[in-house]
Design a protein that fits this description.
alpha/beta, binds NADP nicotinamide-adenine-dinucleotide phosphate, 308 residues, five-stranded parallel β-sheet, 17 strands
Length: 308
Amino acid sequence: MYDLIIIGSGPAGLSAAVYGKRAGFDIVVIEMNPMSGGQVLNTYEVDNYLGLPGINGFDMGMEFKKHAEGMGVKFANAKVSRIENIDNDHFNVVTDDDSIFETKSIIIATGAAHALLNVPGEEKLTGKGVSYCATCDGAFFRNKSVAVVGGGDVAVEDAVFLSRLCEKVYLIHRRDSLRAAKMLQDRLFACGNVEVLWDSVVEEIEGNEQVESVKIHNVKEDKHETKAVDGIFIAIGLNPNSGFVRDIVECDDGGYIIAGEDCVTKTPGIFAAGDVRTKGLRQIVTAVADGANAVASVERYILDKQQK
Ligand code: NAP
């Protein structure tokens, strides 16, 4: 019986593992992908993590894992298929190959995946001008032309953010009105170098080694055009990786596990850390902070149970 099982080995999960070891827990991290790091691995360069300016995302993931391994954290490579609550006393974590891990508590740190456009060129040019994070990668496009896809808060915030760095920003949105908050829209329309391409969808992202242009279809006027851009930021929402636990923890309409800064979910003994939980800012630094907060909550939970 483990004290704590951590599901996921991105920044939140690995931070929780380090804090968990320091708390003296017997723990195992179950990771689906043997290359720990989560979304960080796909980030060309991380320039906003304090003390490590310009670190390569892959190297950062490896450093995080090395830290956890150096503290003696055990890893298991498996996909978790479900969690079973055993008499409100402990949990069985069941994996795809029918292995069962028994534990007193669980931190879910499975993250979220950026929704994909699924258009030609997107996969090939990811990290080569196609990005899903303006705050991470925007600085690489200083004085260049970029496109942002989407009409929600993130797309509009990204377009405003990029307008300060880039010469020209196209916001490509599939409808004739934005979903983003009014205040954000006001900020967007005040930017002189942002052009909104309404009723438009991306047909293809073009380029050999780097993004060079984007093919757009105006669905209302049935017109096709190509815009020369150096980068394209896709901000059409996130998909939290919570499908396997929706029967045991409460999630919001978007599938995020409902939990506050303390990472406590509505199911005693199960905690949620990082991008998979409801939160305002999904960044490496906030995921790492969640790992620490989640373990502090696990310590309180286990102590309370022992005293009962
Ligand atoms: P979102 O609100 O779900 O918006 C996604 C946008 O992408 C929508 O405009 C949608 O178009 C468009 N879209 C979806 N699928 C598409 C596709 N296949 N092709 C083209 N366009 C597509 O997602 P988000 O902007 O990432 O925000 C996520 C959540 O975080 C939201 O609840 C948001 O309010 C919140 N958030 C809040 C703040 C803030 O309060 N400052 C900041 C950031 C995020 P339609 O409009 O046509 O559906």
